Structures are given as C-alpha cells and as structure tokens.
Amino acid sequence: MRDALVAAAFRLFLERGYEQTTVDDIVALAGVGRRSFFRYFPSKEDVVFPDHERCLAEMTEFLESGPPQDDPVARVCDAARLVLRMYAENPTFSVQRYRLTKRVPGLRAYELSVVWRYERALADHLRTRLTDRRDGTLHADVIAAAVVAAHNNALRSWLRADGEGDADAFVDRALDYVRRTFGTEGPVARTEEGEDVVVLVARRGVPMWRVVKEIESIWTD
Question: Does the domain made of 51-184 have the CATH classification 3.40.50.360?
Fold first, then answer.
C-alpha cells in the first residue's frame, strides 16, 4: 500500500506537477481512501521522501552499535554511506525526486529539514565521543557539517549524471577527504595522564614559520 501510494503520487507529479496534485488525486489513482494515505504519510511532502525516516533510524542504530575503539570520524562517514545506499537502491526514483525537488521551493525547504536531522544525529554521536578533546563540541558540529556537505555534494553530482556510474565512487572520494582532514589524530589529543600532545598535519610546501606559528597558537590557546 505504501509503495502504491508513492508510485501514484510520482506519476501524478510528473504528469500534472506537484502543486496541481492533491492528496485526493493520489488516493483516487491508488484506489484507496484518504485515511489510508494519512496512515502512512502525515502530509503530501512526506510522500516525496518516503524512506528517510527508516534511513535515519538505521543510521542512529549504526552509530550506537559501534565499538568504543572505532575512529568516530570514520564511523560517521560510514553512517553517511547508509544514506547513499538508500538513494542507490532505486536510481530512477532518486533522480525523479531530485528533479522534482529542484522545481518546488516547498520541497527544497522540506529536504533541508531532513538533512538537518541527519546532521544532528551525526553531531550528537560525535559529541559523546569527543568530550575529552579541547573544543570537543565545536569539533563535533564542524565534522558533522563537513560529512553532510561532502556527502550531499557527491550525491548531487551522481544525481545530475542521471544516476549513472558508480555512486559509491562519488561519495567515497568526498568522505575520504573529510576523514583525512578531520581524523581523530587531529591537532589536539589528550593522553591518559592528562598531558597535551600536539599532532599537526600540514600540506607539503607550507613554510616552516607558518607551522611553528600554528603550534605556538595551539600551546597558548
């Protein structure tokens, strides 16, 4: 029933347009009543994103089930790949939704609210894992935002290519960049004895005076 409602909705969205399609139109085509529609979807917007609640629940479970010794940055990158898997399960539908969302401002706003929930889930996990780091909350929020931005940039590139090619390759490249940039052997870590250890990662060719200045700023922070 749920899949039938989604199929009917997208058929009408493509034929008539999103704004011109009502819930009554959708249930009439699907051959069910309005109560059946609202049993599965709180609103017409929700039928456009029918799989995000399930994916968000899977992501949360995945994050909570990780062993304590896991690299938290690698863990949230792997969690983001669950979202990619959801899109890649049905490339045709994903491309149709992408095109529809681009044309309808209300759907773009709805999608942003969904993306924010993913970002909060990642940030909440990172906050629990980075509590012993200086500015751990800041690091958690920045890393979560970077993971979402990298994932979405790669995902949109794949969708603009009509869902052709290796979706994993698009996203892996973007998330690997985040992992290398924000890996937990980042600028500051603490030893069990409470001593500060500075590990600075610099690009090849960076002037030594800049490296020294960066180290001094960390020690005097």
Answer: no
Question: Do the Cβ atoms of 47 and 41 come closer than 8 Å?
Answer: yes
Residue 60 CB: number of other CB atoms within 10 A?
Answer: 17
Nearest to 57 by CA among 8, 132, 147, 117: 117
What is the residue extent of each domain of the chain? 1-45, 51-184, 187-221
* pTM score of the predicted model: 0.76
Chain-centre distance for alpha carbon 128: 19
Closest CA to 153 of 129, 170, 135, 136: 170
Residue ranges in the chain whose pLDDT is less than 50 = 185-195, 219-221
Domain 1-45: assigned CATH number: 1.10.10.60
Q: Which residues contact 77 (CB under 8 A, 6 or more apart)?
A: 147, 175, 176, 178, 179
Element (H, E) at 167: helix 167-182
Nearest-angstrom CA–CA distance, 50 and 202: 43
